[in-house]
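Q&A log
Question type: sequence-to-structure
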Amino acid sequence: MSAEKESIKLLIVDDHKVVRSGVKALIATESELEVIGEAADGREAVTKVKAGNPDVVLMDLVMPEMDGVEATKAITEDEQELKILILTSFSEEERIIQAIKAGASGYLIKDASPDELVEAIKNVYRGESTLDPKIAGTVLNSIQGETSNSAGELTEREREVLELVAEGLPNDDIAEKLYISERTVRSHVSNILSKLDLANRTQAALYAVREGIADL
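Response status: OK
Response body:
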């Protein structure tokens, strides 16, 4: 008999207990997902990440003690491979931008459907960017406005990699598609971020959309 597939371990961070309870109830219906902890503020989230080693953190932005932006920054400084999905409202666009700059893998608006939330969790776990199109334009314009560097500085291969990053493909899939090693893909991604003065893959995906290299 084959080994049972490991579930994606989640930490839910929100200062409203009713939100945490609602997300937990949803996750309980998904065999591939498992809630391993909750936190009511950013400071508690940082502590519980270290103790519980989750795969994905669902992060609220407006919280007491330490907000979601500061918590995201603190977590990604120590846990660069950990995926953080911001779960937020329409009124927090500026904080969403700050969170992406701090290292969040993507964001989802709180009025998203249960299916959209589950899919977003799975996407960020796989290393894909999750960008809710409802406010993508605002985030896109802000991120793009802060770099004067041009996609023209990229090599043809780097542009190919950037397009696939924007499509949400993780490194192993990009390697397979381009017939190159995963190590080479990582090198290309690093060069892309450096040349364009971007912080992470999510910013790179937004940049690629703005430049017409890929569609959202």
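Response note: The domain at 148-210 is CATH 1.10.10.10 (Arc Repressor Mutant, subunit A).
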